[in-house]
């Protein structure tokens, strides 16, 4: 089976993708600097799959280290590039850290792929490239809006860097996957989201509040023009998302791509409000969540959800899990993880 390199393979989406790849018998190499993950995850991947991927702790900014790694692994056939910083607020305070990390690491990966003749790249992009769309649902052809944050801009520029590179080097093929809001956790309860410090994102904030680590959840804005006044997002189960990476990789390996750079939205196609997520969480977990509605959060888009026709029809990918599966699994992970920590 093909050998696949997964950068950031110890992270939230990366680790779930590694599991899906191993379950399909791919040989997996993980490069991760463990900046935002835990080495224990490797153990958990092994527990789920019975297989141990090769893990190399390496920062993608370390060009020398990267060259050595690639020179020793010349049989890699595809790269799935997750490794990146992703905290929107931090990116506003520390823009250079984000530009340097997310863009230099992408450039280094592309350089290595060219040097060592690896043709296939799957790139982690985001629905953030669409900003607040003029019409919904958003398709891959919807206009790219000015990025709301340096983080968002690294995804836009990242896509441009890849577009220019595949144009100049037609031997390279890439698929850019634009994620909507990935939440939930692996059904084993052994993999999930592990935010550092106080979570910025909704789902980990909910589970950490319910488990008693946070006093209450602040719902940002209750007066938007939506069903119940709170923002609408397209939440997608991380395992569904992970499976799309395997399919995209296989499409590249089989050279079934229609152009050298393809884009796909990955969401469920369904929008849910913040209050609907809370209701689902309370229903599936029987936990009462403490929350209050506060001021709007600067930079939030009001409403966004995906048109998933391209991913459904071209990739043949469909989501299997609903919002209740997402909230229930996120809670199972939180409970398991805290128990593990206490032992
Ligand atoms: C954010 C980023 C997006 C990034 C994604 C993953 C923005 C504009 N977008 O998405 O680019 O890819 O994170 O890191 O920042 N909410 C609360 N209370 C909270 C946290 C969130 O009410 O404590 C609400 C938000 O207002 C929003 C929804 O929950 O309506 C989802 O927020 P979040 O999980 O942070 O994701 P996004 O902002 O959609």
Characterization of this structure:
41% of the residues lie in helices and 17% in strands. Helix 1 (12-23) runs parallel beside helix 2 (40-49) and helix 9 (274-285) crosses helix 11. The chain is of the alpha/beta class and 343 residues long. It has eleven helices and 13 strands. The chain is globular, with a radius of gyration of 19 Å. Strands 3-2-1-4-5-6-11 form a seven-stranded parallel beta sheet, with helices on both faces. A two-stranded parallel sheet has the order 7-10. A two-stranded parallel sheet has the order 8-13. The longest helix has 21 residues, at 95-115. The chain binds uridine-diphosphate-N-acetylglucosamine.
Q: How is the secondary structure organized here?
A:
Elements: E1 3-7, H1 12-23, E2 27-32, H2 40-49, E3 54-57, H3 63-72, E4 76-81, H4 88-93, H5 95-115, E5 120-126, H6 150-168, E6 173-179, E7 181-183, H7 202-210, E8 217-220, E9 232-233, E10 235-237, H8 238-253, E11 261-266, E12 272-273, H9 274-285, E13 291-294, H10 309-315, H11 323-342
Parallel strand pairs: 1-2, 1-4, 2-3, 4-5, 5-6, 6-11, 7-10, 8-13
Antiparallel strand pairs: 9-12
The structure holds uridine-diphosphate-N-acetylglucosamine.
The site of uridine-diphosphate-N-acetylglucosamine (UD1) has 21 residues, from helix 7 and strand 8.
């Amino acid at each position: 089976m093909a050998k696949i390199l997964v950068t950031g393979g110890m992270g939230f989406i990366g680790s779930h993708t590694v599991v899906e790849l191993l379950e399909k018998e791919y040989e997996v190499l993980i490069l991760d600097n463990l900046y935002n993950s835990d080495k224990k995850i490797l153990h958990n991947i092994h527990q789920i799959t019975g297989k141990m991927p090769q893990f190399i702790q390496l920062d993608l900014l370390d060009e020398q280290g990267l060259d050595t790694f690639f020179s020793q692994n010349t049989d890699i056939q595809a790269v799935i590039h997750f490794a990146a910083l992703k905290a929107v607020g931090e990116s506003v305070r520390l823009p250079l850290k984000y530009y340097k990390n997310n863009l230099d690491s992408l450039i280094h990966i592309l350089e290595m792929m060219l040097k060592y003749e690896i043709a296939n790249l799957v790139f982690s992009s985001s629905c953030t490239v669409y900003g607040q769309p003029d019409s919904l649902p958003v398709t891959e052809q919807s206009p790219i809006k000015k990025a709301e944050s340096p983080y968002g801009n690294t995804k836009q520029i990242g896509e441009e860097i890849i577009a220019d590179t595949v144009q100049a080097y037609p031997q390279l093929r890439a698929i850019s996957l634009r994620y909507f809001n990935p939440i939930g956790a692996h059904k084993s309860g052994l993999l999930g989201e592990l935010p550092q410090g106080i979570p910025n994102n909704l789902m980990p904030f909910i589970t950490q509040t319910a488990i008693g680590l946070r006093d209450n959840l602040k719902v940002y804005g209750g007066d938007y023009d939506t069903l119940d006044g709170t923002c609408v997002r397209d939440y997608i189960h991380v395992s569904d998302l992970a499976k799309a990476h395997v399919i995209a990789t296989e499409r590249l390996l089989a050279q079934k791509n229609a152009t050298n750079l393809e884009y796909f939205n990955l969401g469920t196609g369904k929008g849910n409000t913040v209050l609907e997520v809370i209701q689902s969480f309370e229903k599936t977990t029987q936990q009462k969540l403490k929350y209050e509605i506060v001021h709007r959060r600067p930079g939030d888009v009001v409403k966004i959800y995906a048109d998933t026709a391209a991913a459904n029809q071209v990739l043949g990918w469909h989501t299997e899990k609903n919002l209740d599966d997402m909230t229930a699994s996120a809670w199972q992970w939180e409970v398991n993880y805290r128990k593990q920590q206490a032992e």
